[in-house]
Design brief:
The structure holds two protein chains of two kinds.
Chain A: H1 4-22, H2 25-53, E1 56-59, E2 70-73, H3 75-102, H4 105-127, H5 131-150, H6 156-186, H7 191-198, H8 205-221, H9 230-237, H10 240-274, H11 277-297, H12 302-323, H13 326-357, H14 368-371, H15 373-387, H16 393-407, H17 411-437, H18 442-446, H19 452-470, H20 473-488
Antiparallel strand pairs in A: 1-2
Chain B: H1 3-20, H2 28-54, E1 60-67, E2 70-75, H3 78-104, H4 110-129, H5 133-151, H6 157-189, H7 206-219, H8 231-234, H9 240-267, H10 269-275, H11 279-297, H12 302-322, H13 326-357, H14 368-371, H15 373-387, H16 393-407, H17 411-437, H18 444-448, H19 454-472, H20 475-486
Antiparallel strand pairs in B: 1-2
Helix pairs in contact in B: 1-2, 1-4, 2-3, 3-4, 3-9, 3-13, 3-19, 3-20, 4-5, 4-9, 5-6, 5-9, 6-7, 7-9, 9-12, 9-13, 11-12, 11-17, 12-13, 12-17, 13-15, 13-16, 13-19, 13-20, 15-17, 15-19, 16-17, 16-19
Classes of the chains: A mainly alpha, B mainly alpha.
Chain lengths: 491, 487
């Protein structure tokens, strides 16, 4: 039990190695599945311990945190660990047929290798309490993500991966510059110690520069508008399974890392009280919500449409962070949960359609609701959650954000938030209307309902958006604890 | 069964019907039998609630704690009781009519139609029973979503365009205006519950209160207060049973019901009257009453004329509520019921004309009264009720609103009602006149015209009778409406 924090990362890392060794598609998938079903168990146990004890601290190799690497789980990253690993577990059964259909057989094992490396990297970023270790994991997850995207069967996937590689590298470099500055000023890479020591030097120019570098660097990774340009192509051309995984988890992990620095290392008082971070983030979040959503409306490819939607949805999360109040942060973190579930369900439904129909162009999907009713029904349910219809988890996060805006006295912000739902309605409506209410195209008529191995994961996620929307106290309760922890400062 | 159990049962029955109908998709007769049984059972459950409510019971059930402060609660009060009786009662008649209409017109996708219809009734009863603003909002949104497939039933470009407008205006209004209004109410009042006298007394200034009321009135686009009315004429592309029950009764009444609930139980009539923050609503409602009638005058397409008439009549209810006067409030509540029976009759007749010979325009109605006496006699009764001529139900509600307006010294409102009555006569009497007094048009269509299938005729005659009966026996609706002001 004591070794659980390190196992959280080591198991997917070893799994990746094993996949590379076995080289056979089915065996590699089995390894990936076993790993994907093991990590959420560990994550849930860790989150439970964090909820009970406050903090789980693990010293790698027995070194004291001032010298060595500390893995440190509190309720904030405990929640993110659970989200990432649960999504991975749900993806596993979906992946087998989808990956087999979209990739050449000799590449399948490499796909799972990269997939597990990426998973290990994300879990590592989340669990580590060390700024430089986080950078290492950031690179592991990023490099493997570039490879995952480049495995897409469309040749444009290569350009998309290259674009992402360049921007991702710039982001990582910025991050490491910021960490370097902090190291110079505080003499430690441990986040907890950094947080204690930075208070004394927080008005110095290197620390302010570090804040700027780290914020911009991570914002590139989390695709905050206007640093999002790599995202739409990457999501659109990656293999379906990779898109589901990256869309649901990678931006969330980056958001977590940013949260860790802003609220925990630098501290909310300094960042939001003395630095102009709130207006900057509110402005970019609102721009993301409106511009990216408007661009989404005009996409002809459903996958690209959802990719732009992701940029817009990230805006709601950063908006919640920028408000830096208990209600706002609760809304932001509920939206992390909401968006992970919702977008995973949506991209998975598109993956199932891709599997059966071979296309996700909206014009080709006309009437596909007749041949794939269960898939399209799940797509519709998740779409409602994306819009934020009451009774879905998407409503819960928007409700918190609206209330937080009113509490801050920013009624105009509340109106912008609800008005943006209307744009979401339009782009979700375009896909749903085409799928249900148009005469079936030849492609749609030739399709069949998705196999159970895909339908079950899709419906698990779509059902979760409804269940957590009605029993919203669950998600909101834990998000509220996260908010309290973040605003409580270092413990 | 205890009233609380009945309340839940009445909500579950139409929802269960929606789930059962697809199981019988292969056998239309059984499928329709399920719908009819569901309708009768739902009405029975609703009707069984009337005596306890009249006796003063106010059954309430907490269904689900969504979040702290956001609870799905059912709580019955007189206005909701009245709305539920109207909606569930007319569902029976409308189902009978649907069977005739959908079969005679060979409509596609009938199973989907009956499923969505039952779901729409469930959502309507949910709004009627809602015990707080959040629950009301939840069912109100659900009602939009489940009626969307009915609006786009024909799946052609016109239907899809109407569907887009429908979703954009209804969901747009409810998320952009109504949701902030509810959130604001919750923050200011610390509660989302309904209480006699309102929950906002003394908590907001005049300007803020006026703004809040405006957010509610225009956010609740189902009430079709101008300029939030465009979706309603567009929604007429749906099959006539949809227009008849949903877009003349359930959906639109959910809108005016919501507004009335807000005025009576959230902001509070006394607060608004004392404060003057809601005085503008009289003018907005009056504008809609008159302008919608003027537009109706110019519509040759019968269903569109009826749609604009509905817009005008809905604002009677808003006007009645906006006078902040007990008599007018009774009138507003009664108008929900009286307009329902009359307007559904008119739509039934329009659908009957369409089925019998594709008579869709007023200009084609010459002499149809001789070929289709039942249909047109019922149409005439419905038309008289719209104008407010005794002995039809429309007279009663109009009388109360008028009396309330006069009693409050609101002479502007009195004038509006008088002018609108003349306008109503102006667009409802010509079709009646054409149908009975003019000679049939030459050509084969006029000769071939005969009454529609019997289920349709039975349904429209039944609602016509109800329109007259409500004039002579207004006791139950009147007592329910009266309880609204006595608390």
């Amino acid at each position: 039990m004591q070794q659980l924090p390190v196992l959280q990362v080591v198991i997917p890392l070893l799994g990746a190695l094993l996949c590379a060794l076995v080289r056979r598609p089915l065996a590699a998938w089995l390894v990936a599945t076993v790993v994907s079903w093991t990590v959420p168990v560990i994550a849930v146990v860790l989150l439970h311990e964090a909820l009970v004890d406050g903090v789980v601290s693990y010293h790698l190799g027995g070194w004291d945190p001032s010298l060595g690497i500390e893995y440190r789980v509190d309720v904030v990253n405990g929640l993110i660990l659970v989200i990432v690993s649960v999504i991975a577990a749900v993806i596993a059964p979906f992946a087998r047929q989808s990956v087999a259909a979209e990739l050449a057989p000799e590449r399948v094992a490499w796909f799972y290798t990269m997939y597990l490396l990426s998973l290990a990297g994300m879990l590592g970023i989340t669990i580590t309490g060390d700024a430089f270790n986080a950078f290492v994991f950031l690179e592991i997850s990023s490099l493997s993500s570039y490879a995952l995207i480049a495995l897409g069967r469309d040749r444009r996937a290569l350009v998309a991966a290259y674009q992402y590689l360049i921007l991702g590298t710039i982001g990582a470099t910025f991050y490491v510059i910021g960490v370097g500055l902090l190291y110079v000023m505080t003499g430690t890479l441990n986040l907890g110690l950094m947080a204690e020591r930075v208070v004394a030097v927080e008005t110095t120019r290197p620390v302010i520069a570090a804040l700027a570098f780290i914020t911009v660097g991570i914002s590139l990774k989390l695709a905050l508008f206007p640093l999002h340009v790599w995202l739409p192509n990457a999501y659109a051309y990656a293999p379906s399974t990779a898109t589901v995984f990256l869309a649901a988890t990678s931006t969330k992990v980056a958001i977590y890392l940013l949260t860790r620095f802003l609220f925990f290392v630098f501290g909310a008082r300094f960042v939001f009280g003395e630095m102009p971070v709130t207006p900057i983030f509110v402005a970019f979040s609102i721009a993301a919500i409106f511009v990216a959503a408007t661009v989404a409306v005009f996409q002809s490819d459903a996958k690209r449409l959802l990719a732009y939607s992701s940029v817009a949805q990230i805006g709601y999360i950063t908006l919640g962070l920028a408000l830096a109040t208990t209600t706002g942060l609760t809304g932001g973190f509920v939206h992390i949960i909401a968006h992970a579930l919702t977008k995973a369900a949506l991209f998975m439904a598109l993956g199932a359609i891709m599997f059966r129909a071979g296309t996700v162009a909206i014009d080709d999907l006309g009437g596909i609701g007749r041949t794939m009713p269960l898939t399209v029904a799940a797509l519709t349910v998740a779409g409602l959650s994306l819009i934020g219809i009451p009774g879905t988890i998407g409503f819960v996060s928007k409700w918190y954000l609206v209330v937080a805006s009113f509490e801050a006295g920013w009624w105009w912000l509340a109106f912008l938030i609800v008005a943006s739902s209307l744009i979401t309605l339009v782009y979700v409506g375009r896909v749903v209307e085409a799928a249900w209410f148009r005469e079936p195209t030849a492609v749609a008529l030739a399709a069949r309902e998705a196999p159970a191995a895909m339908l079950i994961p899709i419906w698990l996620l779509a059902g979760a958006t409804i269940y957590l929307g009605l029993d919203a106290g669950r998600a909101a309760g834990i998000a509220g604890k996260v908010a309290a922890t973040l605003l409580g400062g270092p413990q | 069964m205890s009233p609380a159990t009945l309340l839940v049962t009445a909500l579950v029955l139409p929802a269960a019907t929606a789930l059962l109908v697809p199981l019988f998709a292969r056998s239309p007769n059984r499928r329709e039998a399920v719908t009819l049984l569901g309708a009768v059972a739902s009405f029975a459950a609703v009707a069984a609630l009337v005596p306890p409510v009249l006796a003063g019971a106010r059954p309430a059930v907490d269904l689900l704690d969504v979040l702290p402060g956001l609870v799905i609660t059912l709580a019955l009060e007189p206005l909701g009781m009245l709305f539920a009786v109207v909606a569930s009662g007319l569902w029976i008649v409308n189902s009978l009519y649907s069977i005739g209409y959908m079969r005679a017109n060979d409509e596609p996708r009938q199973t989907t139609f009956y499923v969505c219809f039952a779901a729409a009734i469930a959502a309507t009863l949910g709004t009627a029973f809602a015990g707080n603003l959040f629950t009301l909002f939840l069912f109100y949104e659900a009602l939009t979503l489940v009626t969307y497939p009915l609006v786009t039933h024909h799946r052609d470009e016109e239907a899809r365009r109407a569907g887009r407008l429908y979703l954009l205006m209804l969901v747009g209004g409810s998320t952009v205006l109504l949701l902030p209004a509810i959130a604001w109410t919750g923050i200011v009042a610390g509660s989302l519950g309904f209480h006699a006298g309102g929950i906002l007394a003394g908590k907001l200034g005049t300007a803020a209160l006026a703004l809040l009321l405006a957010l509610y009135v225009f956010g609740i686009a189902k009430a079709a207060v101008m300029p939030m009315h465009f979706w309603l004429p567009a929604a007429m592309v749906a099959p006539t049973p949809v227009s008849a029950l949903l877009h003349a009764v359930a959906v639109v009444k959910a809108g005016v019901f919501f507004i009335t609930k807000v005025i009576v139980y959230v902001i509070g009539v006394d607060t608004l009257r004392a404060d003057g923050a809601g005085d503008w609503l009289v003018y907005v409602a009056s504008f809609t009453v008159v302008v919608a009638s003027l537009v109706a005058l110019r519509q040759d397409h019968l269903k569109r004329r009826l749609a604009y008439s509905t817009i005008s009549q809905l604002s009677y209810v808003v006007l009645g509520a906006a006078l902040f006067n007990p008599l007018a409030l009774i009138g507003a509540a009664l108008h929900i019921a009286t307009h329902a029976v009359a307007k559904i009759t008119l739509f039934f007749a329009a659908g009957s004309l369409h089925t019998a010979g594709h008579v869709d325009h007023v200009s084609e109605m010459d002499g149809v009264g001789r070929r289709m006496p039942w249909t047109m006699a019922s149409f005439a009764i419905g038309a008289l009720s719209m104008i407010g001529v005794p002995p039809t139900a429309g007279f009663i509600s109009k009388w109360f609103i008028l009396a309330g307006a006069a009693g409050a010294g609101q002479w502007f409102a009195v004038a509006v009602i008088v002018v609108s009555t003349l306008l109503n006569a102006g667009y409802f009497l010509p079709p009646v006149y054409r149908a009975f007094a003019r000679a049939p048009a030459d050509g084969d269509r006029g000769d071939a015209l005969a009454e529609s299938p019997w289920p349709m005729v039975a349904a429209l005659v039944a609602t016509a009778i109800a329109t007259v009966a409500l004039f002579f026996f207004p006791d139950v609706p009147y007592r329910l409406a009266g309880m609204l002001i006595s608390g």
